[in-house]
Amino acid sequence: MSTDYQRAREELGRRLRELRVESPDGRLTGDQLAQRLGWRQSKVSKLETGRQTPTDEDLLAWAGATGQPALYEELRSRLRGFESHIRSWRRQLTAGHVPVQETWNTLVANARTMHALSNAAISGMLQTADYARCVFEQQTALRNAPRDTEGAVRARMKRQEWLYRPGKRLNLLMHESVLWARICPPEVLAAQLDRLLGVVGMDTVRMGILPLDAPLRLPLGNSFCMLDDRLVTVEDWHAELWLDDAETITLYRRVWDTFAESAVFGTDAQQVIARVRRSVKA
Question: What structural domains and CATH numbers belong to the chain?
Fold first, then answer.
């Protein structure tokens, strides 16, 4: 967990303690507040010390139980302030993948350029419906999320309309290992590779492949996506990181540019994809 995230959580915890101690009904002990809320006392302690992240419902209940319901919006704003940087998959997928995909559709619609590095799967901007379906089903099973695969696939396919709008530009790097990864049946992977072959040469897409034997100046690290110069998102198993400070965005752009020096583009990229495609028995 990042230091900044933990510091923000601890600050929210201190604010929660202030509400308990300064209750208009008189100072409440942790035990008294827990009884009012019907919680274990350990939950009150964890929230106040920043060892547990509260939900919106927790904050609403806390503000009400301490006699200060008008302060709920302040607490909620504090929570949103640091959750905008670390967005837990557990929280994001409470209602399934569709809301997550729709949020991404809105973000992408407002962007003119994207710089992405994909090291785990084919970029969602270029996935076929069948490939996307496999990815969503795997993620749903891993996280025990609500099953809304077909809606999520439709939302992801709709986002790809962005590629056909004037003035848009996708700058994508993918490691060759992504092309080989059998995260879907062979016939699905074959169709996905055919899709990539057809994308090379589109005027809105600049796609580079990092060959397996390419010398790299940096370790690959996590996949990420940069929207214009205003937001970088980084995927991890537990969460997405949303990073919007100028220094960090500059760093990720430098990372992308560094990997681009090792990538092949155009017909050379097509040759790498075609070589992998010939190995797939659809």
Answer: 3-83 (1.10.260.40), 88-279 (3.30.870)
